[in-house]
Amino acid sequence: IYNFNAGPAVLPSEVLLQIQEELLDLQGTGLSILEISHRSKEYEKINGETQQLLKELLNIPLDYEVLFMQGGASTQFAMVPMNFLLAGSVASYVYSGTWAGKAIAEAQKIGQVAIVASSESSNFRKLPALDNMKVPPGTAYIHLTSNETIAGTQYKNFVDTGSIPLIADMSSDILSRSIDVSDFALIYAGAQKNLGPSGVTVVIARRELLQRISAPIPDIMNYRIHADSRSLYHTPPVFAVYIVNLVLKWIQANGGVRGVENRNRAKADLIYYAIDDSDGFYSGLADRDSRSLMNVTFRTSNEELEKHFLLESERNGFVGLKGHRDAGHLRASIYNGVTYEQCKALKEFMIDFQKRFG
Ligand code: PLP
């Protein structure tokens, strides 16, 4: 089966096998990861090691915290304004698609929001430019979405926001390429695309930003509480964190983030080539310079043909190629766990399909 689903979790097969092998006996403890206490030294080790692996792989500066939280990126949509959007300030958001829209809607429930860049008028085919944002005075932070999973768009470069904290939802492209973490005050990402299974959300935050939190909010929603307890404030999602640990080791053993990035570029090239070389039989949904390396969105000339494409692709072992209901059409999600060979097989299938129906 070639898995091109947008989520959750496309895990490397080596990692899945290791989980299977260790399920009943975690590294000689005689216990399953599902049973050991989250206060045990074994779990403490996994927790600390996983934070450290992420710091090494992403080159995270020393003044940042790595947190493992629950509730998915959707909880972060609410937590970010709850922690940082205080009365009298305004939060500036970049409106690049469905996911940014959800983050905006949550922030609007908490306080004042300004949309400082938007590509709604192009139906999110392209990303809003970041270089001429009109950021209002009193802006507490600027929020953007690095990769819009549904539209299939991805920022290649970010922007220097000076003293205003830049906060990013990187749910669908974290660890798929190298980034400069110091450009951001806070990054959050549901793990279930490139990092592991659903159930754990990674937050990378500048310590100084967390020190500033003064909002009267419940402890469970307060980043600083989680940071002060090294992500052990309450029962953590131990199984999910353990799997993230294995995935990070897999990335480390497979060329690190550079290796992953090179593979991801080569994988995306294969599928975009099939689109661009098709004389219009296929066309991309996103503008070329906004195209995502993670979610390739495309279409054919008519709906009937797309239905047939999906039917045939499924018969040939490809799953998950139906576009999200918001964007329609077709989408191949090619996260870290999807191999070059699988993308090559999809490219060949697309070319063959075109030969027969073009
Ligand atoms: N942000 C982006 C970019 C996403 O792709 C998704 C889910 O696909 C979310 C946020 C929502 O994440 P969750 O389902 O973990 O709440």
Structure description:
This protein is of the alpha/beta class and 358 residues long. The chain folds into two domains: 13-253, 3-Layer(aba) Sandwich (Aspartate Aminotransferase, domain 2); 256-357, Alpha-Beta Complex (Aspartate Aminotransferase, domain 1), CATH 3.90.1150. It contains ten helices and 14 strands. The chain has helices at 13-22, 41-57, 72-84, 98-110, 207-211, 223-228, 238-253, 256-276, 303-315, 340-357, and strands spanning 2-3, 64-69, 90-95, 112-118, 139-145, 147-148, 153-154, 166-169, 186-190, 201-206, 283-284, 295-299, 318-319, 330-333. The strands form four sheets. It has a seven-stranded mixed sheet with strand order 2-10-9-8-5-3-4, with helices on both faces. α1 (13-22) packs across α7, α2 (41-57) crosses α7 (238-253) and α8 (256-276) packs parallel to α10. The model has no long low-confidence stretch (mean pLDDT 96). Bound molecules: pyridoxal-5'-phosphate. Residues 7, 72-74, 99, 145, 149, 169, 171-172, 190 line the site of pyridoxal-5'-phosphate.
What is the overall silhouette? globular
Count of discrete domains: 2
CATH hierarchy, class of the largest domain = Alpha Beta
What order do the SSEs take from the amino end to the carboxyl end, as H and E?
EHHEHEHEEEEEEEHHHHEEHEEH
Report the helical percentage.
25-40%
Which hetero ligands occur in this complex? pyridoxal-5'-phosphate
Task: Please count the beta strands (DSSP E, at least 2 residues each).
Answer: 14
Rounded to the nearest angstrom, the radius of gyration is 21 Å
Largest sheet, spatial ordering of strands = 2-10-9-8-5-3-4
Q: What structural class results from the helix and strand content? A: alpha/beta
- How many helices in DSSP terms? 10
Head-to-tail CA distance between termini: 26 Å
Can you name the CATH architecture of the largest domain? Answer: 3-Layer(aba) Sandwich
The CATH topology of the largest domain is given as: Aspartate Aminotransferase, domain 2
What value does the average pLDDT take? 96
Poorly predicted runs:
none
Our estimate of the beta-strand percent is: 15-25%
Q: Describe the biggest sheet?
A: 7 strands, mixed
The CATH superfamily of the largest domain is Type I PLP-dependent aspartate aminotransferase-like (Major domain)
